[in-house]
């Protein structure tokens, strides 16, 4: 029975992920604790009551989800984690690309003309992913997190603006061969480092959840 | 504050769940599961809250500042992780008193009529 409880609670953990992230970060852990406590007490009353507890939770879920998503759309609660107000930072590199594409449609196409351009793009995507993971997953470490996210965003902007400009200057100076190889090597290494950080943070998130 | 004024002006009734949750906190602060058990006891088993429904209601009451949330003290480190205590605020107590008065006035209106009704049919 204890094994079964563990699996039910794990299942409940997955159900909790359906709630808006802001609600889950504010109340998810408590809800899990209460459900676990209720379930362990239900076991003493019998198998049927355990089933009733699960059914009740499932029955109430759609209504609660709807209410919480509606509440989040209206601005959420001050008791929820407020870090989502900085969520726009995650989209900043993407917004910059959209803006640049509107101003100069050829800009982004030129970026894909060479390997370095591709590496810059991959870097940008990795930076966005890292920003997202930091903002969404490691909510408790607020002090260094916001500084880190800010620096990463600056880095993404620098890559977007300076990378292509740098390549163009290098090409016009006819030393593109040497500099491009060097800069590409650096960018590939940065990409790999970013990928490593993302993977380690994802792993950490899984450990925190389990 | 806006929400409070709205409540008083319209004399909007509390839902039964909200009423029982507030009533459960009237005597002492409780944690989530404590509220759940007390509500079940008070309603003679009729209201068996799910965790989702309980926390949806608690979140709303926190927003309205009718209840407050604090860390529960004196528990082992591992269990304290997921335990928070909820307490009734002064505003919450006033709301509960207002709702009780509203219910009492309803009973006052209904009682004589029902008594007369029984007397007539008898």
Q: Which keywords apply here?
A:
heterodimer, A: 210 residues, mainly alpha, 0% strand, disordered C terminus, B: 122 residues, three-stranded antiparallel beta sheet, 6 helices, disordered N terminus
Topology:
The complex is a heterodimer of chains A (210) and B (122).
Chain A: H1 2-16, H2 21-45, H3 47-73, H4 88-103, H5 105-111, H6 115-137, H7 142-172, H8 176-209
Helix pairs in contact in A: 1-2, 2-3, 4-5, 4-6, 4-7, 6-7, 6-8, 7-8
Chain B: H1 2-10, H2 16-27, E1 30-31, H3 32-42, H4 51-63, E2 67-71, H5 77-80, E3 84-88, H6 90-121
Antiparallel strand pairs in B: 1-3, 2-3
Largest sheet of chain B: 3 strands, antiparallel
Content-based structural category of chain A: mainly alpha
Helix content of chain A: over 70%
Order of helices and strands of chain B: HHEHHEHEH
How many beta-strand segments of chain B? Answer: 3
Radius of gyration of chain A: 23 Å
Number of helices of chain B: 6
Task: Name the poorly predicted regions of chain A.
Answer: 81-85, 205-210
Instruction: Give the tally of β-strands of chain A.
Output: 0
Helix content of chain B: 55-70%
- Helical stretch tally of chain A: 8
Largest interface, chains and sizes: A-B, 26 and 21 residues
Strand content of chain A: under 5%
How much of the polypeptide of chain B forms β-strand, as a percent range?
Answer: 5-15%
């Amino acid at each position: 029975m204890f094994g079964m409880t563990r699996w039910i609670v794990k299942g409940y953990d997955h159900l909790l992920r359906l709630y808006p992230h802001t609600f889950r970060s504010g109340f998810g852990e408590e809800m899990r604790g209460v459900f676990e406590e209720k379930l362990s007490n239900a076991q003493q009353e019998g198998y049927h009551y355990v089933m009733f507890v699960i059914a009740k939770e499932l029955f109430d879920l759609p209504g609660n989800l709807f209410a919480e998503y509606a509440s989040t759309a209206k601005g959420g609660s001050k008791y929820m984690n407020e870090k989502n107000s900085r969520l726009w930072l995650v989209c900043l590199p993407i917004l910059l690309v959209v803006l640049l594409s509107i101003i100069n449609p050829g800009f982004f196409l030129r970026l894909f003309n060479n390997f370095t351009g591709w590496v810059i793009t991959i870097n940008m995507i990795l930076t966005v992913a890292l920003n997202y993971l930091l903002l969404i997953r490691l909510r408790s470490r607020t002090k260094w997190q916001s500084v880190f996210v800010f620096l990463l965003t600056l880095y993404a902007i620098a890559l977007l603006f300076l990378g292509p400009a740098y390549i163009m200057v290098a090409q016009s100076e006819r030393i593109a061969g040497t500099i491009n190889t060097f800069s590409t090597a650096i960018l590939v290494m940065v990409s790999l480092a970013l990928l490593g950080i993302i993977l380690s943070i994802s792993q950490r998130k899984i450990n925190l959840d389990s | 504050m806006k929400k409070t004024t709205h409540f008083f002006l319209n004399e909007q009734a509390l839902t039964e769940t909200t009423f029982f949750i507030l009533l459960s906190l009237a005597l002492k602060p409780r944690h989530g599961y404590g509220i759940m058990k007390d509500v079940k006891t008070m309603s003679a088993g009729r209201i068996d809250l799910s965790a989702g429904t309980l926390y949806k209601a608690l979140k709303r009451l926190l927003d309205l500042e009718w209840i407050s949330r604090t860390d529960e003290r004196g528990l082992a480190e591992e269990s304290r992780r997921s335990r928070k205590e909820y307490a009734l605020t002064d505003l919450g107590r006033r709301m509960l008193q207002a709702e009780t008065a509203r219910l009492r006035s309803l009973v006052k209106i209904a009682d004589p009529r029902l008594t007369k009704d029984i007397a007539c049919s008898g």
